[in-house]
């Protein structure tokens, strides 16, 4: 009887111990899992990269885009040279063309250019600035002058009341041809002034220096008819 009581007491104690142990074990078992779950938690931060959807990339066909003005670089215009047309007989900036007669006063020499002689001369305009001024001096021997001159604009010398004197200088050079027994060709330098007298006439005075046999100098005075 006593033994049965002891056995029941031991059995009850063992059962009670088992129940208490089972009730405590889950509490201890959950703690490691809870710890693991806490350690395995990840912290996420909001992304700073903005994403653009394909809808945002589509351009509204009704939206008008302003035209872009591309800067243009202006190229310097190439320099153009205006060629003057040669027209024999045209008026130059010194006045119209003419043909005239006059006299030559020589200053010593061996040719008619440097002796007193009768002269026939002309001004033939070529362009606005240039003209040919051929002349022939008639004496014991004939001398022909073929100069090309630069004509300068008409300039006013004096102006008193209603009277005004204008002059148009010219300067140039060419060839002097002497005929006769000792025919020769030399260099010619010429210069002078044209004085408009009227719309029909022009007075002229010029110095001619020729290097034929030796230095020949003559002063030409005459009046020309404008054409």
Mind sketching the topology for me?
Elements: H1 2-39, H2 54-57, E1 98-106, E2 117-125, E3 130-132, E4 135-138, E5 143-151, E6 155-160, E7 163-178, E8 184-196, E9 201-211, E10 215-226
Antiparallel strand pairs: 1-2, 1-10, 2-3, 2-4, 3-5, 4-5, 5-7, 6-7, 7-8, 8-9, 9-10
Textual characterization of the structure:
This protein is an alpha+beta fold and 227 residues long. It has 2 domains: 1-39; 98-226, Porin (Beta Barrel), CATH 2.40.160.20. It is built from 2 helices and 10 strands. Strands 1, 2, 3, 4, 5, 6, 7, 8, 9 and 10 form a 10-stranded antiparallel beta sheet that branches. Strand 4 (135-138) and strand 5 form a beta hairpin. The longest helix is centred in the first third of the chain and has 38 residues, at 2-39. The chain is globular and about 70 Å long. It starts with a helix and ends with a strand. Residues 25-43 have low confidence and may be disordered.
